[in-house]
Amino acid sequence: xxxxxxxxxxxxxxxxxxxxxxxxxxxxxxxxxxxxxxxxxxxxxxxxxxxxxxxxxxxxxxxxxxxxxxxxxxxxxxxxxxxxxxxxxxxxxxxxxxxxxxxxxxxxxxxxxxxxxxxxxxxxxxxxxxxxxxxxxxxxxxxxxxxxxxxxxxxxxxxxxxxxxxxxxxxxxxxxxxxxxxxxxxxxxxxxxxxxxxxxxxxxxxxxxxx
Length: 211
What we know:
Elements: E1 2-6, H1 13-24, E2 27-30, H2 31-44, H3 52-60, H4 75-84, H5 88-102, E3 108-112, H6 115-119, E4 125-130, H7 133-146, H8 153-169, E5 182-185, H9 191-207
Parallel strand pairs: 1-3, 1-4, 2-3, 4-5
């Protein structure tokens, strides 16, 4: 069983994906982490995340086992991720790794921005997780400040809006809700409630004939 979960920054898709994977006993891949790691690698090398050559070089040498979860969650890594993610050649490199992960017969949960539309269009269940911009900014601000990063609400809100725009308008694999994806708005939901709502949607979908 493949469960594909898409959504914008700080919508709760990663939290939902982790909870869903645990509930159903499936492995999970946070595909956004791959792009963050590539973007961060370009920055570390003194390059421009918008430079295709730099992005592809970082993607081709990415060591999945060496991704620094703390460093890739910075606001700078997030912006860099949206820039490398707009490069078709970078997406082509990382797409192979994502599809290989999803090909495991044991099943998997994948979350990102083009899982249901490009990576796993035949997934048994697809979710599109969203929340309003103000709430998403508050969530990410709390996360960043918890790690000691200093940033103001308005500046972060502008960054997130900028990333949304870049993600939704890029030519290759733009962020959008798949026609057959179930919408889950987490604006007013707690973590626990969001995961429970997702599991209800998945159970209902799997119970339909032909699923």
